[in-house]
Inverse folding.
């Protein structure tokens, strides 16, 4: 298992990647300028990032006509862009489910649409009206069955993907979200969800200087925690009902999800004295590291226990917009990887469809399934000779078994019949002999 | 024991002495293995020989021996003799001797050393193959040859340096055994041939090469033959499912096979369903499989692929065939494919839907072409067909995992509509296992959709009779609804185990194998498993609706399964039959579901916690180790529920960088609450020291309602004490607390817009204050940093009082 961190910035630049253990810089993927939450690893197949256009501000005002967006894809072993997908409107948030079979994107337009593409074919399976304004972040639930979306208009919605695909319901209009939270007053900047399954807690951060904790099961606000500054990013401590919040004031705060005080009161640390905003956070469960990215392009790995930075990476001048922890399995035998890669064939990134085709086209009923990981293990057949001997011997032993007994009975019956037949013939012969003898006697007489 | 006169003077270290091995082998050879002169007398000793060889590794010529030259030569010569004897036996004219030789050769292939195998496998292979090719050889010899060759190839596949040679050897086998398959009608031979073919297709798929179509045709003709038994049908179908691996192993051949199978199934169904469904359905299904503009593939098994007309009349035959073909599809879906495959989910699902839609009734729209007898025949075969279709659905769900998403809603609809129609226990069990798989693979979203259906059906299947298979008893037990009735019921059952007549009666029921009462037991097992999975995955979702019902149901079931039955399990333990394990299984399933209902997240304290603890405590002392083990596990799990833990977070925030106002706040709150708990896990200690421990309910309620009020008071108190800088922050704090309090207390009654308005209003004037606060915070942070750098920060290993209190005082209840 290789654990690396991947980071992108919001100005034209590259996606840097580093090995978290050794700190070694790995491949740089370019060119890329992606907004916050616009970078995602698609399974362990490839890397996808939505792109910010330079002329975005200009086109924003002119309406959606000329306004187009794009998503770039990279394979893990190539620095150049593998596929550029151009879309009708700019995409801000991007997320993939853990198996890497679907990608969802949230549009940056006025009605914030959410798109769902199938990775294998690039088909646009669903496009639905998500929020009134642009969608800023998208998060899959732990089992990939729910999608949580946050928007610039401060609303958060929880969608059941299964229900979205329910044709009967969609005939009656858009499927409604499972939950609709409107308590944030300003743009939602980040959302995280803990390991609670159906009882999970959702934490959201917003520019309104609060982080709010929601219950998935109850579908309501549990508590709201006020911070001294607007919060840009969140990361969750997986085991301790604690979350980290990266503030615009360069501080990383620690929030307790079940705190009684409605104030955040602790600071993990700050990256720089010059108060550059923290722009993104990520938590790596292996080794328990918190990783922060800041506006001045610094990436810092923290040990949350000692609250000291362990390592820093420099990611150029632009603000770091995304950090992702990526886990890849390393196959030691390179030839094997290559051959299995070739055999698996088109693991190439898809060209995403711009618009949705008619329902019949989408549901052509063919699903491409990748082999499950580690299916390349050699197969072993079983040896059977010993079993065969035992079986045959057992059959020989079971002399009184039903089959042989039935056979015996049948043979006995047949034997009896043959005996009778024999008698019959004998009798006939004797009779015949008698007749012949009598005739002979008669003739001789 | 060792009769060889030479050896009688030798001494051995102990029973593990390697010097013993060649002696043992020679002994076996002279005593038990026939030679060319003696006839085979004692077949029974052969299994003895095989097991002795396997246990003592007599053929391994162990490398351990290499230290002693003498020993090595001894053991080598012994194995040499062994192999020579086998080869002479194999070439013998007598079929029984030949059979012994071939079988033992198979064992030798498995057991001998790599060097020996590698140098002589070719010779062995040819001598075995000659028996398959020889038309004179008897059937028993052929069966043994196929099995031994299969073992030989299996061993050969583990040598990586002979891939080419191995493939060419394997290829030599294909044609002769396909010929045998056609000529010989013996099932035993078919079985060993299929085994050999399977071995080849798994290990050396390239060996089929040019014979692919021939093999497919031969197997298909067997599947379509009326003479094949159902057992063999399954084996042939299994092999057919693996066959696409042999054809270059690419996704194209997989898809082609799947397409052929689906077409064949649908063609059969068109015939079978005549008059029972609209004819357009079948046409549509076929159209979908062969889209216009594309050539339809050859039918399964080649041009005249087995659709012989004679069989069209037998309903039973059609259904057996279709079931075999569906089984083949299922195997193709689930057997792990090493390349990616295109699964025609749409066709598969519509096929399942098509089959499940036909229930034997005549649709009104269709003019009744069907005679009564025909309908009767069809109806008799439908359950089998439905069962196969459900299997196919299960395989489809398993194989496409997360990508079921676009189809999930229609699958849910299919499953829930069939739940309503289905009455046969066997089909219902399948349906439950499909539900369980859906829940496991799709998670919370699926639980939202399926919960109601699972709960409704499980309460029917678990509710009407008691859990045990004792029909004689359970039929007399009234329907259990409430606790009172339950007690009466359990008393009655206790009584029944004592009373001689009834006990005898139930023992009689148990003693019957394949009694009809067995199927409800497995149905109950399936229902319990589905409930457990639902509770695991979506327990928190049902708080408003089905949860209470499920908790009661599961509690009743577990109590019924266990109380008064602990003893009976032991009593009947002496009867060597299935029902005893049934008893244990149903207890385990019930206990597992009960534990899930106690632990699964809920808004209220588990209602039956006391009952559960008592039940598990009793269960822990049971003689049945599986049950006892699970009960111990359950008690450990429940320990967390009765002693809610809030362990200090390992080294996380401590005093170091805390703002003064929060410090005062925390300590005050601490004093207010109880003022004990100076170390360790605060909540736990506090809880222990409390005279009247609050229930979880109370804690939660207090968390929801009372605390914020207290807190505001405390905050005001804090204001008095606080310095001027902190004053600002606390003002803000208390205001915000009140806001949050309002919105949290009754979010339904407070209009959202109002809340927003007030918050926004507050936002603007606060701006100035906030800035000041910010400054103070910055200052504080800086101080904290300095302290840190001076090395004065708190010792993290001993969590400080306030930190614990802050993080855990009311914690872990909500989450």
């Amino acid at each position: 298992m290789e654990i690396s961190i991947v980071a992108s910035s919001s100005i034209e630049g590259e996606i840097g990647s580093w090995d978290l253990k050794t700190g070694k810089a790995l491949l740089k993927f370019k060119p890329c300028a992606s907004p916050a939450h616009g970078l995602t690893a698609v399974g362990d197949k490839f890397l996808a990032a939505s792109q910010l256009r330079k002329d975005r501000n200009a086109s924003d005002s002119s309406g959606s006509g000329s306004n187009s967006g794009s998503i770039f894809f990279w394979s893990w072993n190539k620095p150049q862009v593998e596929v550029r997908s151009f879309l009708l409107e700019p995409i801000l948030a991007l997320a993939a489910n853990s198996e890497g079979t679907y990608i969802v994107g949230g549009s940056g337009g006025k009605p914030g649409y959410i798109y769902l593409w199938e990775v294998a074919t690039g088909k646009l399976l669903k496009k639905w009206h998500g929020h009134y304004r642009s969608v800023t972040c998208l998060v899959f639930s732990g089992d990939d069955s729910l999608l949580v979306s946050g928007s610039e208009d401060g609303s958060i919605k929880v969608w059941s993907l299964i229900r979205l695909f329910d044709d009967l319901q969609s005939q009656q209009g858009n499927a409604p979200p499972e939950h609709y939270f409107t308590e944030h007053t300003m743009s939602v900047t980040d959302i995280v969800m803990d390991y609670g399954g159906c009882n999970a807690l959702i934490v959201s951060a917003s520019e309104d200087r609060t982080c709010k904790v929601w219950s998935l099961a109850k579908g309501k606000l549990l508590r709201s925690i006020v911070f001294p500054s607007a919060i840009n990013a969140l990361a969750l401590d997986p085991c301790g009902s604690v979350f980290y919040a990266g503030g615009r004031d360069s501080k990383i705060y620690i929030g307790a999800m079940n705190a009684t005080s409605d104030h955040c009161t602790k600071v993990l640390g700050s990256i720089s004295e010059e108060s550059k905003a923290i722009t993104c956070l990520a938590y790596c469960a292996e080794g328990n590291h918190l990783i922060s990215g800041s506006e001045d392009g610094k990436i810092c790995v923290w040990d949350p226990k000692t609250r000291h930075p362990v390592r820093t990476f420099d990611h150029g001048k632009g603000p770091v917009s995304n950090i992702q922890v990526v886990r890849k399995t390393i196959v030691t035998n390179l030839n094997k990887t290559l051959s299995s890669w070739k055999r698996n064939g088109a693991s190439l990134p898809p060209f995403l469809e711009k618009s949705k085709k008619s329902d019949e086209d989408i549901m052509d009923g063919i699903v491409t399934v990748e082999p499950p990981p580690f299916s390349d293990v050699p197969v072993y057949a079983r040896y059977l000779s010993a079993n065969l001997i035992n079986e045959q011997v057992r059959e020989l032993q079971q002399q009184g078994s039903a089959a042989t007994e039935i056979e015996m009975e049948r043979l006995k019956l047949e034997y009896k019949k043959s005996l009778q037949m024999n008698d019959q013939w004998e009798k006939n012969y004797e009779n015949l002999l008698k007749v012949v003898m009598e005739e002979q006697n008669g003739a001789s007489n | 024991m060792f009769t060889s006169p030479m050896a009688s003077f030798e001494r051995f270290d102990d029973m593990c002495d390697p010097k013993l091995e060649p002696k043992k082998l020679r002994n076996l050879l002279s005593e038990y293995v026939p030679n060319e002169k003696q006839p085979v007398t004692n077949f029974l000793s052969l299994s003895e020989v095989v097991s002795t060889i396997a246990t003592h590794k007599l053929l391994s010529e162990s490398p351990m021996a290499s230290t002693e030259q003498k020993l090595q030569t001894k053991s080598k010569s012994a194995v040499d003799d062994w192999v020579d004897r086998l080869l002479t036996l194999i070439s013998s004219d007598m079929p029984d001797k030949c059979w012994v030789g071939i079988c033992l050769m198979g064992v030798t292939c498995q057991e001998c050393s790599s060097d020996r195998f590698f140098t002589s496998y070719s010779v062995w292979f040819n001598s075995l193959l000659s028996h398959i090719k020889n038309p004179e050889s008897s059937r028993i010899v052929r069966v043994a040859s196929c099995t031994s060759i299969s073992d030989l190839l299996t061993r050969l596949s583990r040598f990586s340096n002979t891939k080419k040679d191995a493939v060419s050897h394997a290829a030599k086998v294909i044609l002769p055994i396909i010929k045998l398959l056609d000529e010989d009608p013996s099932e035993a031979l078919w079985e060993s041939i299929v085994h050999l073919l399977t071995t080849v297709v798994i290990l050396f798929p390239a060996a089929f090469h040019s014979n692919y179509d021939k093999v497919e045709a031969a197997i298909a003709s067997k599947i379509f033959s009326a003479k094949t038994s159902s057992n063999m049908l399954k084996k042939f179908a299994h092999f057919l499912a693996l066959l696409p691996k042999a054809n270059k192993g690419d996704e194209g051949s997989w898809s082609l096979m799947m397409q052929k199978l689906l077409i064949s199934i649908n063609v059969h169904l068109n015939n079978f369903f005549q008059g029972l469904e609209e004819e357009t359905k079948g046409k549509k299904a076929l159209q979908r499989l062969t889209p216009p503009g594309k050539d339809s593939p050859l039918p399964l098994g080649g041009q005249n692929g087995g659709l012989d007309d004679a069989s069209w009349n037998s309903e039973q035959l059609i259904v057996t065939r279709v079931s075999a073909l569906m089984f083949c599809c299922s195997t193709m879906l689930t057997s792990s494919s090493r390349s990616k495959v295109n699964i025609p989910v749409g066709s598969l699902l519509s096929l399942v839907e098509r089959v499940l839609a036909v229930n034997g009734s005549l649709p009104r729209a269709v003019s009744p072409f069907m005679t009564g007898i025909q309908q009767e025949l069809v109806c008799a075969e439908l359950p089998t067909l439905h069962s196969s279709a459900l299997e196919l659905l299960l395989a489809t769900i398993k194989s496409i995992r997360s990508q079921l998403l676009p189809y999930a809603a229609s699958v849910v609809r299919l499953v829930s509509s069939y739940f309503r129609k289905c009455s046969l226990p066997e089909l219902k069990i399948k349906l439950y296992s499909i539900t369980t798989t859906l829940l496991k693979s799709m998670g919370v979203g699926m639980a939202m959709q399926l919960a109601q259906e699972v709960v409704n059906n499980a309460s029917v299947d678990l509710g009407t009779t008691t859990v045990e298979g004792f029909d004689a008893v359970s039929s007399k037990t009234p329907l259990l609804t409430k606790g009172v009735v339950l007690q009466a019921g359990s008393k009655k059952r206790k009584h029944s185990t004592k009373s001689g007549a009834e006990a005898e009666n139930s023992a009689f029921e148990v003693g019957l194998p394949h009694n009809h009462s067995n199927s409800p037991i497995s149905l109950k097992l399936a229902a319990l498993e589905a409930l457990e999975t639902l509770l695991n995955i979506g327990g928190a979702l049902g708080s408003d609706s089905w949860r209470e019902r499920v908790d009661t149901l599961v509690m009743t079931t577990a109590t019924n399964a266990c109380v008064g039955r602990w003893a009976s399990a032991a009593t009947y333990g002496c009867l060597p039959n299935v029902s005893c394990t049934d008893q244990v299984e149903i207890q385990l399933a019930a206990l597992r579901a009960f534990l899930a209902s106690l632990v699964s997240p809920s808004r209220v304290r588990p209602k039956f916690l006391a009952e559960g603890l008592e039940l598990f405590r009793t269960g822990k002392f049971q003689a049945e180790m599986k049950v006892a083990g699970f009960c111990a596990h359950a008690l450990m799990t429940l320990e967390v529920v009765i002693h809610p833990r809030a362990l200090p977070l390992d080294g996380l925030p401590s005093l170091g960088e805390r703002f003064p106002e929060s410090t005062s706040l925390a300590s005050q709150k601490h004093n207010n609450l109880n003022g004990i708990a100076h170390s360790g896990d605060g909540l736990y200690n506090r809880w222990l020291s409390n005279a009247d421990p609050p229930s979880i309910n109370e804690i939660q309620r207090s968390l929801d309602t009372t605390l914020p009020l207290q807190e505001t008071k405390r905050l005001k108190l804090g204001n008095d004490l606080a310095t001027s800088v902190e004053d600002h922050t606390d003002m803000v704090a208390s205001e915000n607390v009140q806001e949050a309090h309002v919105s949290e207390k009754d979010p339904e009654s407070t209009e959202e817009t109002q809340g927003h308005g007030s918050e926004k209003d507050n936002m603007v004037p606060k701006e100035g204050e906030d800035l000041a606060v910010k400054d103070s915070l910055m200052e504080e942070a800086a101080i904290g940093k300095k302290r840190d750098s001076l090395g004065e920060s708190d010792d993290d290993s001993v969590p400080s009082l306030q930190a614990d209190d802050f993080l855990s005082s009311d914690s872990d209840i909500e989450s």
Q: What stands out?
A: The first strand of chain B starts at residue 341 and ends at 343.
